[in-house]
Specification:
The protein is an alpha+beta fold. The protein has two helices and three strands, in the order βαββα.
Length: 78
Amino acid sequence: MAEEELYDLVIPPGVPRSVIRDIIGKYDVELVDSPQRLSFANMDGDMRNLLAFRGKLDVIQKAEKDMVTQVKDFIGSD
């Protein structure tokens, strides 16, 4: 039996810990390190380990929408 493919949702730096905890509590995701190449400012090309949620595609898509909504609510943006 083949395993279902898992996907990573990279968590942008600055996302509040409360949002990360909430997403982990609501969805079947795992918090993992995800090496990412940066391409901005003086860090162009640097590799950094960023946090990511790992899970099935449909779950990751729901978690992403929820994370964006919660971050917008946190900063008071429309």
